[in-house]
Every structure is written in C-alpha cells, then in structure tokens.
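User: Hi! Is it possible to get a structure for several chains at once, not just one? Here's what I have:
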Amino acid sequence: MSRTIAFIGLGHMGAPMAANLVKNGHRVRAYDLVAAALDHAVETGAERAGSAPDAVADAEVVITMLPAGTHVLGLYEETLPAARPGTLFIDCSTIDVLDARTAHERAVAAGMRTLDAPVSGGVVGAEAGTLTFMAGGGAEEFAEARPLLEVMGRKAVHCGGAGAGQAAKICNNMILGISMIAVSEAFVLGESLGLSHQALYDVASTASGQCWALSVNCPVPGPVPASPANRDYRPGFAASLMAKDLGLAASAAHAAGVHTELGLRAAELYTEYAQHAGSAEDFSGIVRTIRDRSGGQA
Ligand code: NAD
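Assistant: Yes, the chains can be modeled jointly so their relative placement is included. Here is the combined structure:
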C-alpha cells in the first residue's frame, strides 16, 4: 500500500532511507534545513516541501532522521500543530531515552501516534536497505510502521514501550564500544609479546574471545580483509558517533542510577579519540590510540 510520508532530515542516513521509500512506490514529502540535502532528495524522486510543517500537513506518516534529541523535540514542537490527528510519527534518530519519552508524550498529547525506531547498520545499510530497526511504542503503531521499516531495512524488532528502541540501541552500542577496546588492548598486548595478529585472530575468533569487534570489524589489518583497518580506518562507523552513543548510554545510566564502569571509561576514551585523531575515522582506529599510549609499533 502506497503511503504519503513526510521525511525530515536528509543527511547521510536520511537521504538513502527516503530514496528507498520512493523506490518502493511511496510518496515522500521531503524537508531539510540544508538546501543541498533537499535538492538531492528531490533528484531521487521525493517532493520538495517548503518547511517542516508543510511536509507533515497531508502526511499519514512522519519520519525524522535528525542529529540529536534537541532537534527532534524542536521539530515536534514545530510540526505537531500542523499534522492531521492520528498521524504516525516515527523517529529514527539516535537520541537520549528521556528525550524519546518526552517526544512520545508530547506527540500523544497532541493527538498523534508515535514510535522511536533508531537504526543500526550505518550509511552502507541505509543505502542497501539492510538496516536493523529497534522500535519502542505500541504494538499497533509498530504493526503499521513495519512495512515501511522493512523497505528501509532488513529487520525490525519491537523492543517494548516508548523509549525502548533507544534503550536497545545504546545498550547494544555500549557492548560494542567496550568490546572493541578489549579486542584492541589484546592485539596491542599481543604485539608486545611477539604474537602475530593472525595467530591471535586464529585463536580468539574460534575461542571464548570471539565477538563482532574481532571477527567482523577487526581493528588490525590482515585477518579480516573487509574491516576498516585495511583501508586506513575509513568508516564504517565513525568514532564520533560511537562517542555520541556512549555519551547517551552514560546519561541514561546516570539517570537510572546504574554503575557502568567500563561504559563510562569507554565513553571517555572514544570522546578523546574523536576529538583528536579519530574525528573522521572508524571507531576501531582506537587501537592506534592504545598503541601510541603504550609507545608501541604495529
Ligand atoms: P547528518 O548530520 O548527516 O544528517 C542530519 C540532517 O538533519 C542534516 O541534513 C541536517 O541539516 C538535518 N536537520 C537538522 N535539524 C533539522 C531540522 N530542524 N529540520 C530539518 N532538517 C534538520 O546525520 P546522519 O549521519 O544522517 O545521522 C542521523 C541520525 O542517525 C543521528 O541521530 C545519528 O546518531 C544516527 N545514526 C547515524 C549513523 C551513521 O552511520 N551516520 C548510524 C546509525 C545511526
């Protein structure tokens, strides 16, 4: 069934996601503050909206893909009065769990239906339509959103009520951030002990050290040819986004009174890395920071 969808936020992720909706026969009313981003969306078949309220005015579904919670809350304030009652608002941005819950509350108070549905899979997944969505909200809203999520992605998981999608996203990325540091420290220690990268990989990838950070996104070049380490750490998943997600995890842990010692330390390390050498690198490049601090050579 073809739907009329307002798509707001046409950056690295939003642009290919909107293009996939167009390709699948949906009418997409696009809006972005940046003219070049909007022009690009129009070139890929979306309709140009003159403003965010204009985009949502006759939409059945509103999808947002924005940088942070402050943008989402601001956008909701601007657009909720312009939307038809009952419009389904799906926020795919990665934002703070508390902001996501506030966005749900405000939308529901304005007579709308909502879902938080952040993604995993990066720009490559957005282009290929292979993202994983983790959704928070009502079962009916999820059922209605599912056919659209499955156009933009390969998998959609309903994680629970409002904010549960954001919770799943930051918990998963906290595992990922910490495990990449663990794998990187092991390789740097192995180097200093005279162990080749391949030997450590061959053992750990089939032993209890096995994890995604090792066997898919291996932080040293060689053992996994497709990993970013083989192309000078071009992302991939940018270190700045990992730092952002670990910051969200730290803020959620603080609000919940949960002591996430390694999560907090990982947030500090990625923030430092992203502010310096790693601003445009894949997060696995953190191995170089660990090596530099140890005074070692690859
Ligand atoms: P981006 O900065 O490339 O795109 C964001 C877009 O939103 C920009 O084009 C900006 O102009 C637009 N925008 C901001 N405020 C707006 C407003 N009020 N009205 C209209 N447009 C507005 O960011 P991105 O990489 O596409 O990421 C988007 C979200 O997806 C972020 O929350 C990010 O954490 C998350 N995410 C990104 C990746 C990735 O690999 N890039 C992976 C997973 C999740």
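The longest strand covers residues 153-160. The two ends are 54 Å apart (CA to CA).

User: Great, thank you!
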